[in-house]
Amino acid sequence: MGTLRVALVGYGGAGRGIHARLVRAAGQRVVAVVTRSRAAQVEADWPGARVLADVGSLLADLSDVDLVVVASPTGDHVAHVRAALDAGVHVLADKPLATTARDAADLVARGGDRLTVFQNRRWDPEQLALRGLLARGELGDVHRFERRWERFRPQPQDRWKENDVEAGGLLLDLGTHLVDSAVQLFGAVREVYAELAARSTPAVDDVFLALRHRSGVLSHLQAGGLVGAPGPRTRVLGSAGAYLVTSFEGEPTPFGALDDAYEEGRRPGEPVHEGWFVQGAQRTAVPAPTGGHHEIYPALAAWVRGDAPAPVDPADTVETARVLDAALVSAQTRTVVPVV
Predict the structure, then answer these.
(1) Which residue intervals define the domain Gfo/Idh/MocA-like oxidoreductase N-terminal in the entry (predicted)?
(2) 5-120+294-308 has which CATH code?
(3) What is the pLDDT, as a whole number, of residue 162?
(4) Among 48, 125, 267, 336, which residue's CB has the most CB atoms within a 10 Å radius?
(5) Which has the closest alpha carbon to 185: 204, 164, 211, 159?
(6) Where are the domains of the chain?
């Protein structure tokens, strides 16, 4: 196999805004797109690509397709992923794989070695930098992990993500990333306490999760769309110091002043930084890692060729879904809920 030939199911924020961009950056090719309203965009972006109105039409002819990427709304994932797997093709599903752990487990069992999930935040620079610090033992014994994904959007967008109370909302959208990050760093979760609210949208837009890991680490994870003063993006507390990331992807935050001051004073040859190693009043810039999202699609191509394992073990997403299922129960009962 030469260039990876990709079919996209969906051409919105995920399909066009994320996947198509990464496909192009990796020198691969989109050969087919399922979309009912964006044919002109597809033709402009990928001349010669087939444009199809439904998934069935795509799966009827996979002769020019190596990988199907399911980037449709979350509520459609189960049906679309199942159909693609039954057609015998390799499948990359956008996260979350499904809205419940039961449905996610069913898809993983059906998919075997032909299914993976787009947990792209594993390749975020802050995640890579933190993994390096932990591997080197520079934080000592970690006892708390905090990560926030907070925004101030008093006028929310009018999309399925904000309006679909079953398959939308920040618990499934951003909570999936937050929980996956915590589990990748600190292991399986033993119990969950959650507070969830819908403050400005029909779907949940205010999330607080407290996870007790089997390792003993406590993770506090937050996501919100009505946060006028977003907190520090990441704070990890250990016996030898802390790792601090003040801001994330350009979201305004008062804590970003620390980064601004460093960049303004950075001399030629000093590294671009990815957060801070902090010991009280002392802080040291953590050099940015070399990896990133550009590595995802080359890894997918190696997987499809049979040269490497899936970039993300889909079984991991079942564990994340179990945590989110427990979070829903916790929020409803106002109790700590074990993850089973």
Answers:
(1) 4-109
(2) 3.40.50.720
(3) 95
(4) 125
(5) 211
(6) 5-120+294-308, 122-292+325-338
Report the distance separating Cα 226 and Cα 153, nearest Å. 6
Asked if residue 261 has pLDDT above 90, the reply is no
Question: Which tens digit of pLDDT belongs to each residue from 163-180?
Answer: 999 999 999 999 999 999
φ, ψ of residue 73 to 5 degrees: the values are -55, 145
The pLDDT value recorded for residue 253 is 77
Q: What is the DSSP string of 125-179?
A: HHHHHHHHHHHHTTT-SEEEEEEEEE-B-SS---SHHHH-TTT-SHHHHHHHHHH
- pLDDT at position 262, please? 64
E strands, the chain, are 5-9, 29-34, 50-52, 67-70, 90-94, 115-118, 142-150, 189-197, 206-213, 218-224, 234-238, 242-245, 273-279, 282-287, 337-338
Hey, how many other C-beta atoms are within 10 angstroms of the C-beta on 40?
9
